[in-house]
Amino acid sequence: MIGVVVVAAACVVVALAVVWVLRRRYVVVTVHGESMLPTYRPGERLVVRRASARSLRGGQVVVLAGHAHRPRADGTPGDEAGEEASKSPRWIVKRVAAVPGDPIPRETVPALRTAPGTRVPDGHLVVLGDNPDRSHDSRHAGYMTTDRLLGVVLRKVGQP
Predict the structure, then answer these.
(1) Alpha carbon of 136 to those of 3, 80, 92, 101: distances in Å?
(2) By the 8 A CB rule, do 119 and 104 touch?
(3) Does residue 38 have a cis peptide bond before it, meaning omega lies within 30 degrees of 0?
(4) CA 63, CA 46: separation in Å to the nearest integer?
(5) Residue 2: is its pLDDT beyond 60?
(6) Pairing status of strand 26-30 against strand 149-156
(7) Average pLDDT score over residue span 20-27
(8) In this prediction, what percent of the chain has a pLDDT beyond 70?
(9) For labelling alongside 38, which of 15, 20, 87, 93 has CA 20 to 30 A away?
(10) pTM summary value
(11) Which residues of 110-122 are buried (b: 16+ CB within 10 A; e: fewer)?
(12) Cα dihedral sign for 85, 90, 94, 97?
């Protein structure tokens, strides 16, 4: 009887450890707004793998902290900062157009037409929504800083 209890307890501990590891590596976020139509629709849920900026490449879809929200060093959502935070989305979903070291895409990103240099600087990204008419992205705001990165979108939840 004691052996069964020990095995059951060990199984519970292992299961909790697996859940803890998965939650530290993967996150599910909900799409808000129409900036990524037709790729992602409002209300769809996305599986996101936490990633470093060094691992990014052009064309990947990423999740970044909204303007008033910055993730903590461990990747968990940071605290909101006043009334501005309550108006901005916690997470934004965009497609990477350029990573540090890539040429600055001046032709497609008006906000960067007068940016100094010829390459995207370290610590910065150029990100665009798939629906330019409904997206506030690098076309309007210029560079996004890499400290806002949560991770890379892997797939929609419930998608086969």
Answers:
(1) 59, 20, 10, 23
(2) yes
(3) yes
(4) 10
(5) yes
(6) unpaired
(7) 72
(8) 74
(9) 87
(10) 0.77
(11) eebeebeeeebee
(12) positive
Place of tokens 């007068």: 114
Q: DSSP for 125-159?
A: EEEE-SSGGG--SHHHH--EEGGGEEEEEEEETT-
pLDDT bucket at 143, cuts 50 / 70 / 90: very high
92: CB partners within 8 A, 6+ apart: 35, 63, 64, 65, 66
Q: What is the reported pLDDT for 80? A: 43
What is the rounded distance in angstroms from the CA atom of residue 62 to the CA atom of residue 32? 14
Residue 91 token pair: 């997470």
Tallying the residues shown for the chain, one arrives at 160
Rounded CA separation 57/21 (Å): 25
Query: How far is residue 126's CA from residue 112's CA, in Å, rounded to a whole number?
Result: 9
Quote the CA–CA distance of 48 and 93 in Å, as a whole number: 10
Both tokens of 88, joined, read: 């901005």
pLDDT score of 69: 46
User: Per-residue pLDDT for 120 more than 70?
Assistant: yes
